[in-house]
Write a structure and sequence with these properties.
The chain is an alpha+beta fold and 200 residues long. The protein is 48% helix and 13% strand. The protein contains 8 helices and 4 strands, in the order ααααααβαββαβ. It has a 4-stranded antiparallel β-sheet. A hairpin with a 4-residue loop joins β2 and β3.
Length: 200
Amino acid sequence: MKKTMTSNRMAFTGLFSAFVASLCCITPVLALLSGTTGIASTFSWIEPYRPILMGVTVLILGFAWYQKLKPRPQDIDCACEDDRPKFIQSKTFLFLITIFAGTMLAFPYYSKIFYPNSNAERQIVYVSESNVSELTYSIEGMTCAGCEAHIENEVNKLEGVLGVDANYETSKAFVKFDRSKVSANEIVSAIGKTGYKIIE
């Protein structure tokens, strides 16, 4: 019984560390779903610690599996007790926790699917070439594809924006826009609403 309690605690600890490891990328999606886009970059400070948290998750879940699978000393047979473990103490439950933790750790790689594709809905607009401007912004706090999608989604809401391409690896966002319909200040304001900071 003590072994199952230890492996359960380890499983929940592993799940928690997986959640914390991906919190920097989960927050922008939660912000989009809740409509509070300003909190998107709240946990971006966790990103440098993500590899450590991922390693901790793997070690903890590995230890939980070791505890679960190592042979138990034979107890005296007693017909008076039901030896079947409860679901929460079973290998199936630990397997589900492990799958969910893996899904959480991989979240930054698929988080972009939660954002609407603004470019697909965009209608063809004819713009005078003399009104087209292009600006590149350096942005602090982007840590994954979800962060890129969050910024692109917010800026694409502005009328007159012709295209946005944010890249978390370079910490830059490239914006092409019709300056007769939208100003650079409005674009800066839209990026600011996401919670990410533009570096001057």
